[in-house]
Specification:
Length: about 325
């Protein structure tokens, strides 16, 4: 057969073998919480000190000459950091190690690293806290109290500031029915009011600096095609940025937006988005991603073990500086 014969057995002989070293990757879901929140590494278990109640001079009269000083007592509390472990193992044959092209082993280990990160990112989003997992960024206090028996009700959770009536809680609501069945003008008005209320009314002014939006893909898709009364889009994309280059893909109300498809979907009662700072939630790594190659245990079967693990935790540090956007029906 000739190499020019497309049906010939040696037709592929005209293609350099090096081309077969390419690896066509299948990307994992986007895990953005680790990139958007503070990450710290410790070699042992730790406790952090946090202000529970500030002292205040509000309402006090001026102190007269030789007058008594007013006693002021603040209070502090501890934030206990736990450690939870993820682990995985892959067995690879000696033949695969020697014959595989396209950096297959490196791809396998890269997938291990990505999946550990994705696993913990999901735990930071919807864990149940206490001794059972990281505390959740993307659960309402009601959902958290239902999942974690340590809390009698939503008001007992560390994010109690997000619970209660929307008029008093540090949250805003997006109505799914208005988005799905209302007019474009009604949807835009509802979303604009919710975003501006959370941005300017709910979060105390001393915490306005450094805010960012973190939201799921469903929320972003619902907002991205809306325009205001002057036909201007609510969402403003970055003209020079792509998801591959940055986790920020645009702005809402002048604040950067990070989007993930590893967060709760559009459903009544779920969290649609968080408006928060990097410092509001802490990710604490006891041991970052690590790997071990074991050529001995399964050597009698002609296999090599690759063992990977990660130990981490996540805790709310300043829920009072953040706000929740919640779906309602």
């Amino acid at each position: 057969f000739l190499a020019s014969d497309s049906n010939g057995a040696v037709a592929g002989a005209s293609i350099p073998v090096d081309l077969l070293a390419q690896m066509i990757r299948k990307l994992p879901k986007l895990a953005v919480l680790r990139q958007q929140l503070s990450v710290r590494t410790y070699s042992n278990d730790v406790e952090l000190q946090r202000v529970n109640a500030r002292i205040s001079l509000e309402g006090d009269a001026f102190t007269a000459e030789s007058g008594a000083y007013t006693e002021k007592i603040g209070s502090f509390e501890r934030v206990r950091v736990r450690n939870f472990k993820s682990s995985a193992r892959s067995n690879v044959t000696e033949e695969f190690l020697r014959d595989a092209r396209g950096n297959a082993v490196q791809e396998m280990l890269l997938q291990h690293a990505e999946e550990h990160g994705l696993y913990f990112d999901n735990a930071y989003a919807t864990g149940i806290g206490s001794d059972d997992g990281p505390e959740p960024v993307f659960l309402t206090p009601e959902q958290w109290a239902t999942a974690q028996a340590d809390y009698a009700n939503a008001a007992a959770t560390p994010t109690a500031i997000f619970t209660g009536d929307v008029a008093t809680a540090q949250k805003a609501e997006l109505d799914i029915s208005v988005l799905d069945t209302g007019t474009a003008a009604e949807a835009a008005k509802m979303v604009t009011q919710a975003l501006t209320s959370l941005r300017y009314e709910k979060i105390p002014a001393q915490y306005w600096g450094g805010l960012k939006w973190i939201m799921g893909q469903d929320t972003f898709a619902a907002i991205a095609n809306l325009v205001d009364g002057q036909s201007r889009p609510l969402y403003q994309p970055f003209l020079t940025s792509t998801v591959a280059e940055s986790n920020y893909i645009g702005t809402l109300l002048g604040l950067p937006v990070a989007v993930s498809n590893n967060l709760p979907v559009k459903q009544a009662g779920n969290v649609a988005a968080m408006l928060m700072h990097t410092e509001d939630y802490g990710i604490f790594d006891r041991v970052g991603f690590s790997q071990l190659v074991d050529p001995y245990t399964d050597s009698a079967n002609g296999e090599v073990r690759y063992l990977t693990r990660m130990r981490s935790d996540g805790r709310w540090l300043r829920p009072y500086a953040a706000g929740q956007l919640v779906w309602i029906a």
